[in-house]
Each structure stands twice: as C-alpha cells, then as structure tokens.
Amino acid sequence: MAAPLTLLLIVAVTIRAVLFRSSWAELISERVEVVSPLNAWKRVVEGLALLDLGVSPYSGDVFHEVSLSLIHFLFKSILGSDGITAVALYLSIQTYNKNVFRKQKYALESDRYPADCLELLRSPKEMFYIPLKVAMFYLLNPFTILSCVAKSTCGLNNAIIALFILCTLKGSALLSGILLALATYQSIYPLTLFAPALLFFLQRLYIPVNLRRSSFWFFTLQYAFIYVGSLVVITGLSFFLLGSWDFIPSVYGFIFSVPDLTPNIGLFWYFFAEMFEHFRLFFICVFQINVFFYTIPLSIKLKEHPVFLIFMQIAIISIFKSYPTVGDVALYMAFLPAWSHLYRFLRNIFLVSCVLLACSALFPVLWHLWIYAGSANSNFYYAITLLFNFGQILLVSDYFYAYLRREHHLTHGLYLKKKDGTEATLVLK
Amino acid sequence: CWGKQNLKSLLKLIVIALTPAAARDEFQEELVIRPLHSGDIYASFQFRTLWDTDFLQEGQKVSHYRLFPKSLGQVLSKFSVRELHISFTQGFWRTMQWGQPFIPSPPGAELWVWFHDTVSDVDGNWKELTNVLSGIFCASLNFIDLTNTVQPSASFKPLGLGNATDHRFLRYATLPREIVCTENLTPWKKLLPCGSKAGLAVLMKSEKLFHSSFHSQAVHIRPICQDEQCSSKAWELRQTLNVVFDLHTSGQGKKEWSLFKMFSRTLTEACPLASSSKVYVDITDNPELFELSPATPLLGQAVVLGDRRTYSVYDLSRAETFGQLRSFNLLLRWKGDSDMLRPLLHAERYVAGFGLQTGEIHTVIYNNHPYRAFPVLLMDSVPWYLQLYIHTLTVTSKSRDNKPSYIHYQPAKDRHRPHLLEMLIQLPPHSMTEVTVQFERALLKWTEYTPDPNHGFYVGSSVVSALVPSMVAMRTNFTQDQPLFSSFVPVKEESSYFVRVYTEPLLVNLPTPDFSMPYNVICLTCTVVAVGYGSFYNLLTRTFQVDEPSPPLSKRLANLIRRMRGVPLLT
C-alpha cells in the first residue's frame, strides 16, 4: 500500500506547487474563508517584522499566534504539514481498522451478533482501501489545498492533531499527551480531545470506566499529569522565548473574548457585530461553553467507541469554534471514508452534500457582491454562513445517528418485527 | 506750584509702593496681508500677550489677571501644562498654490500639549483638559480620547522653553471631522484683551471670515525667554487667525482687494491695551504685481520662511495712519501676473485600492530644492480600525528604495490606541518620495459606527516636519522687536528654517453590518446553534425503539374503564 500512497502524495504536492506558483496564491491567501486572524500567514510575517523593529509582536492586535511559532523553521514545515497529516491519518485508520476487525472477529466467535445482521459486518476486502481513501479525502479536498496554498497555520494544527490521533491509536500515552498539549497550546479547543484519548487508553488497557475503581483514577491521573505537565513546559518555553506573558491575553484572551469581528465561515462574527453591549459577555460565555459542553455527554454515550468520539469532537470544534476556517472542516471530513459502511443508515446525505457544495460555491460570490461590487450587503454572506454551518451540523448528526443505529442493529438484529409480525420502523424515543 | 507737583509725585510713589507688585504683561497685535499669485489674498492675524508670571509655581496661586485671559490661566495651573497648542481649521492649505503659511494647521481640530514633569497621571490630566477646552471653545473636543491620542517621539518637540524631551508627557490628537463655525470664533475672540471692540479684532466678522477658502484660528501658549541670556521667563499666549479669501467667491472675480471687501469693516483705532498694533503688507513683488494705497513711508524687512521679504508697515498707534476720515482702509489693485516661488517642501496623501477589504495609504513628499537633500520626519497616526501591516511599508525615491534611518512604530490596540508611525526619511534633491503601506479594514460592532456610516471614517493628516535649507540667512539672535509672524518658530541655526506640512486627511469606507438586524441575527444564529443542540440532545438521550402504534382513543378509554372495574383489558 505504500506505492499508491506515494503516488497520491506526489499528485497532491504537484497540485499545490502549481497553485502556489500561479497568481492565485496571492488571491487565496487573502480569502476570509481560508485564513482567519488567528492563522493567517500575513500576520506571522507582520509579527516577525515587528520583532525586527524591536517592538513586541503582541503589543498590537495583529499577531495572535503563539510565541513558539516565531521559530522560523517551524514555518517551513507548513508546506509539508499536509503530507504529514495524510500519512498520520493513513496509519491511524489502518491501525483502527485492524482493531475493529479483531474485535469483530472475537464478537463473532463468541456469538454476540444476532443471526440476521451478518450483512452489517465488515470484511477485510471492504476495509482494504479505506486508509488510502482517507488520505485521498484529506489531500485532494479543495479545502485542504486552499488552506495549504494560503500557508495558513491551520495546516500545522491539523498535522499535530493527526499525529496525536496516530500516537493514541498506537498506544503511546506519553507522545499522545505531549502532542495534545501542543495542539491545545496552539488553539485551546483540542482540550476536549483529552476525554476520547483517555477512553481509548482505558479501553486498550482493559481498565473499566468505573469511577469507584482505583485503577481508573490511577491511569487518569497519569495521563492528566503528562498532558498538564507538557502544557506547562511548553507555555514556560514561550515565556522564555519573548520574556513576557503578553502572549496569554493576546492569544488565549483573543480566542475566548472574540474582539476581532472579521467575517469568516463561523457563527460568531455577525452575532457579536450585532450584539447589544449589555449582553455581550453573557453570549460570549454561552457560545464558548457550547463548544466544550458536548464532551461529557458524548463521552458517556460513546465510551465504547473512542475513535468515533474523536471524530465527533473534532467536528464540533470545527463548527462551533470562534474563528473557523475551511482547513478545520477538511480535517473531520477526511474521516468520512472510515464510516463508509454507515451509508445505508444515513438519512440526509444528499441534502447535506448539496447544501455544502452550494454554500462553498456561493461564499466567494456573495463576498464579492458585498465587499467589491457593493450591490449586496453583509446579510447575504451571513445567510450563507448560517446555511453552511447548518449543513455541517446536519452532516455530523446524520453520521452520529447512523453509527448509533448500526450499533443498535448489531445488538438487536437487523430485520425487526413489531408485535404483530409486520415490519417495524425504528424511532428515537 | 512745585509743592503741588511734589505732592502729586509723592502720591504716585505711595500708590506704587502700596499696590502689590503686579506682574508685567504686554499685548501686541498685528495683521499681515500677503497677496497670492493666483489672485487670492492671505490675511494672518496674530495677537500676543506676554506675561511675567509663573503658573506652575507651587503654593502661589495666580489671581490677578489683566491682559491674560483667566480661563486659560486657570487651565494651565490646574493641569500643569507646559505648552498648549490648539487649532481649528476649516479648509485645506494648498501649498503649491499659496506657498507656506506662517502657522501651519491641519483640517479639523488639532491639540497637542506638553505637560510638566511633575504630573503623575498624564492620561487623566489629558482627558480633563480636553473636556475643559471643549467647554471654553464650544467645540466637540470631548471626542478626543485614548483611541485617537498618540505620543509622538520626535515630531512635536516643544516650541517654547523646555529641556525635557521625555515624550511620555506629550499628547497629540486631531479630529479631522470637526467643523469650525461662528460658535468657535466667538469664544476665541472673547479671549482677546480688547475683545472684538477695538483694534484689529473688529475686522473679524464671521460672515466674511467663513466665506473663504481657508480659515484657521489657533491658540498657542508656551513659556519663553525674555532676553538673550534667559534670565527671566515669561508666558506667551499667541492667538492666530489665518484666512485666505478666494478670488472668485469673495472677490467677485476682480483682482482688487481692500480691507472693506475682505472683512466688510475698516479699522478705526488700535486696541488701547496694546503696546504695538501694526498692519504689514507684503510688497516684495511690487511694483510689478500690484498697486498699494494709501502709500506709507514705513518699510520693514523680515526674513521669514527662508526668504527675505519687504513689507509696508502701517502703525495703527499713530493717529496719522487713519487720516482725516478716522478710518483706515487698504486698497490693493493687481497690475500683472508673475510666477510664485515654488515651495521647497510639499506633501500629498491618498488611499489606493478598491473594495472594502484592503487598501493602501500612499504619502508623496516632494523636495523641490534643485541641489540640496534634507531629511524629513513623517508622522502618521492611523486609527485602530485600519490595521496597518508594517512589513508592507515601502519608501521609494526616484524609483529606488530609500530606507528610513529611524522608524518608531507603535502598533494599535483594538479600541484602545491608534497606530503611530514616525520615520526619518532623507529626501534626495529635486525628487518625489513615495511612502506606501497596506492596511485591512475591520468590521466594527454596530454601535461603533457614526450615524452616517457610509460617509466614511476620517484618518487624520500626516505631519511632515523638516528643517529646510534656507536661501537667506535666518536671524538667530533674539530681538524683541521682530514682527510677530517671523518670531513664532524658534530659529536654532542660520542655514535652515523649520517647516511643518500637513497632508490631506483621508476618508475611508469601512464594511458595515446591517443596522436593522440585531434581533434577527440573534434569533437566526441561536436557531442554528439550537438545531445542533437539539439533534445532539435527541441522539444522546433517546434510544432506538420499535415503533408500536398507539391504540385509538376509544380503545384506550375502554381500557381505562376496564382497569377500574378490574376486568381483563382489550388488546
């Protein structure tokens, strides 16, 4: 499988190189859908220029990256970050598939599946090409290509999260904790990935998730210690790099308090542009809590399925974070081939794909009409933002529904009958 | 007989001995009329009050005000102000057509203040000072706050005495949107010792003054030395009013100007409180350019703005100036045309780009000297909602890169302070230097827009300060009897003179949200979030069950009754 992957990488690099050299690169790096105040390359260059002038990059409101990003060589790796992400995703999905198949084999041998749901089981033939498809979905996704050509640091964030997933699936708690700390350090939202990673390790080490068991607490504290410790070390390193704690209000304060209302594909900008001053703090708190608060309920529901939980969490972060870009969307979309066996239970997939495609096409059109032609106003762009986020929410909840439904069928049988023998319909009650 | 004389002098001595030693104050007024080559006419009034007192002295409160206005004196002592410069300008000074003004000022209101070293909370003093001045001048200076105040590090050095150059005590703010009208002129006139009742101030009638191309009134307060060795210091208050009357709007197209045509008044007497009251008319280009009447034997020469100019002087303290009709009216009649001397330093500014997302500010500075190069200090204060990208700053002269030798850049903090960019650029001789910097326009909260958001947002003028090489040796020796217009800016060396040029203010459009939508936006966004919440809630709290159809109402009622009777239920 290395040869097709290499071919894929070569094709992806070629496409990016071609776009990079053309005049489109300049245009793409200015697009608000692709870059945000948090991860624009222009702002990194500005931060470096300010440092050259002897002014702290955080003294103004232009630079919102973390200090360690100022190290030049980290930025050269942005161009290679897509490749790293793709390879990491490929290897992690491969490991995950092996795990899934092994568990399925044991369950079959212990006769845990009802007789009629054999067609729901997954075969190695079907699962063979999934890792390649995942890598392809990531590398050839137009969102990823745009994000890479714009040199947005979102690519770097995606790479760190992908490496984190790989290390978690391979079972290395230390590396996983360090990479998660790096991802959290760059933008705070990956904090919610702590729960699925913890659940995965507990599952792997056969420690039951029981709050009264000391083994559970022992491992949780170990993992938390690795994570918090690396976070503290990395934050301390940034302090020593620039010699001040300025970066904390500038980066984390900026992410939480959303002072910059530059339009993007998220829900925050127009909401807070039109917010009554009196309620601003309240709604900031509500919107930020909204990102974090699905973690515990989802962890409880999906405690047997931590990898799907990781997918759900990444999707929730991408939709509800304060400054989303298409690069974030591309990361969770890369996982979709891994759930291709759920296709028969998806209810709205046609509608969702049409909505997402239409919105992606309309974003630049309505932006042009508002900003350049002056014949539309901000409401048009806002409407498409709403629709795009609605489409994403529908996509994620559809996959969640399909996943839960398949699990139900695997325990209760595929062809269900009502009391009088006729074919039953399943509803959520 | 001599007894009476002696008694009188004795009484005088007693009176002088008994009155407390009043500080000496002195008032001078002058009007300079400079005909411009396009047929317009430039009139510059200057009123100077010199007062030998110390406002900033601890313990001793100044309470006897005579010529110096009490409102300003109280402001100076309360806020420990060392230097105060405030100007209100309507119109833009066209340097290429009119030459250099005696006192430059940017369009709108400009205020810059040096505070004393002893002030501990400069920002607090600044805020109170702007509010008090806003009341004194009936102007909306209360719009000056930290979001448009900067602390220039090199451009606004003290014009009076002062060795401290710690720019933490300097505050500079400009309001380009401020409109100047009669309401601002009236309190300004009230500050004069004679008010508008006697002296040159009678000429200041608002109908004529505001019907002009350029109108600027200013107040400058600073401490100065009284003599060469600086053994004693005094406070100087200068009130200046510069006005340019347009040939076509005020002059009806006829190249003939008189005091009556310009101001609809003539002069009848000098201000009795003034120690000198003079009218100067610039006749350097005479007799080819215009004819002046009444003729006067008094001639004066002054070196001002790097040039030696000849003036006809009319002394209003002498009765014969007013003639038999007891009124003094000048008449200037144009005879020919001639070329104006090109000003050596000139600057322009404009915004380039299209759309509401990005833009570029271009500042163009012209050095018209044929063979001398000189450095200029460019100061730009850009509001925070235009985010400057300093890595895109380019300075080109004669299509080659010209790197500034000193850059002081303070980036803006959203909603707290504006950008401040100061650069020292060496201008090559006879060249055009272009400074460009890119910016991005921010989307503001809907309450932060002005009531007419599509008018645009103003960016204050850039300030170009330079020591321009002078063609004539400037006078550095300190003499009290120099005309006021040539002694405003202190001259440190003979070969150059100080010039400050203000560029145009910019008008920039920002993207606007729809102002009628707050409630709708809150509802719609919360709906989308609720859809997400609802879907996840359903999937998390509910389980899959087989859908059993519920029995019809009649059967349910029947079952209820059967249950009560204790009889087996229907299926």
From TrEMBL, chain A:
InterPro entries: PIG-U. Residues 1-25 form the signal peptide. It comes from the Eukaryota. GO terms for biological process: attachment of GPI anchor to protein; GPI anchor biosynthetic process. It is a multi-pass membrane protein. The keyword Cell cycle does not apply. Keywords: Endoplasmic reticulum, GPI-anchor biosynthesis, Membrane, Signal, Transmembrane, Transmembrane helix. The chain crosses the membrane at residues 128-149, 161-182, 188-207, 219-245, 251-272, 279-296, 308-336, 348-373, 379-401. It holds the Pfam family PIG-U. PANTHER family: GPI TRANSAMIDASE COMPONENT PIG-U, PHOSPHATIDYLINOSITOL GLYCAN ANCHOR BIOSYNTHESIS CLASS U PROTEIN. This is Phosphatidylinositol glycan anchor biosynthesis, class U. It comes from Cyprinus carpio carpio. The lineage of its organism: Eukaryota, Metazoa, Chordata, Craniata, Vertebrata.
TrEMBL record, chain B:
InterPro entries: PIG-T (IPR007245). Keywords: Signal. GO terms for cellular component: GPI-anchor transamidase complex. One of its GO terms (biological process) is attachment of GPI anchor to protein. It comes from the Eukaryota. The keyword Transcription does not apply. The keyword Transit peptide does not apply. Residues 1-23 form the signal peptide. Pfam families: Gpi16. This is Phosphatidylinositol glycan anchor biosynthesis, class T. It comes from Cyprinus carpio carpio. The lineage of its organism: Eukaryota, Metazoa, Chordata, Craniata, Vertebrata.
